[in-house]
Amino acid sequence: MDRNRMMLIGAVLTGVVVLALGFLVGVQPQLVAATSAESQQQSVETQNATLRASLATLEADNAKLPDLKSELATLDTSVPSQAALSSFLTELDQLAGASGTTVTGFTSSDAAAYEPTTTDVAAPAATDAAASDSASTDASATAPATAPASPTAPELVTDPLVTASNFSSIPITVSIQGSYAQARDFLSKLQGGSRLFLVTTFASTGSSEAGDAAGVPDQWTVGGLVYVLQDAAATQAEQAAETPATTAEGTDGTSSDTAAGE
């Protein structure tokens, strides 16, 4: 090889080395940076999409906020966090006026701690012995009767968040005066009132007119439970503190208001 060819080859090799070094030093870091930036951009876009979805959810929830507040207020009135028997007495008087009855007595017992309800299915009643013997005698002549199906208990629904430490019930007894139709109307209004009320008893304690609208108004007794979203001890303390001025304390742990309907 002559000298010129050697110099040409050296120049070519030098150029290759320079290009390689230029790629390693200048281009490759830029490519890595571009790849990293693209990855970060995709991550940011994904995060932005998630935030936009969350924002849309928050906007939708915010639009429902007035309705949710209204529902909460209704539920808070239905099952308050305090005994609030004075407010309940006022509502009873209003319901009595709307139904044409008169509240003549009110009794509230001490609050009791919540106990989860259990559902038991009663066994079917035994058939009459004579009928059983007769059926046995005629078994050869007639087809056996199909036994009635056993009753099925309804599904029990409970919430683990509701416990004796945050829920209690107050036994209530209300005496009213009026006809049978008026008493039923009062009962219906009571069950549909703003305060949740579970009716446990409904009986007549009055005249022999037996609900005759043209006769002397009967006396009726309505018993049931109202509920408080707090423990029984705190509810009992509130019962003692907020007893209305027209209510007299009994000796058996109950209080009665005979002026509720006046």
Give the structure's gist in a few sentences.
Helix content is 47%, strand content 17%. The protein has 262 residues and is α+β, with helices and mostly antiparallel strands.
Structural class: alpha+beta
Looking at the chains present, what oligomeric state does this protein adopt? Answer: single chain
Q: Beta fraction of the residues?
A: 15-25%
**Uncertain regions spanning at least 5 consecutive residues:** 119-132, 245-262
Report helical residue fraction: 40-55%
Provide keyphrases for this structure.
seven-stranded antiparallel β-sheet; rod-shaped; 262 residues; disordered C terminus; alpha+beta
Please provide a written account of the structure:
- α2 packs across α4 (180-191).
- This protein has helices at residues 3-78, 85-99, 129-137, 180-191, 232-241, and strands at 102-109, 112-113, 168-178, 197-204, 218-228, 248-249, 254-256.
- Helix content is 47%, strand content 17%.
- It starts with a helix and ends in a 6-residue tail after the last strand.
- The chain has 262 residues and is α+β, with helices and mostly antiparallel strands.
- Strands 1, 2, 3, 4, 5, 6 and 7 form a 7-stranded antiparallel beta sheet that branches.
Topology record:
Blueprint (H helix, E strand, L loop, with lengths): L2 H76 L6 H15 L2 E8 L2 E2 L15 H9 L30 E11 L1 H12 L5 E8 L13 E11 L3 H10 L6 E2 L4 E3 L6
Antiparallel strand pairs: 1-3, 1-7, 2-3, 3-5, 4-5, 6-7
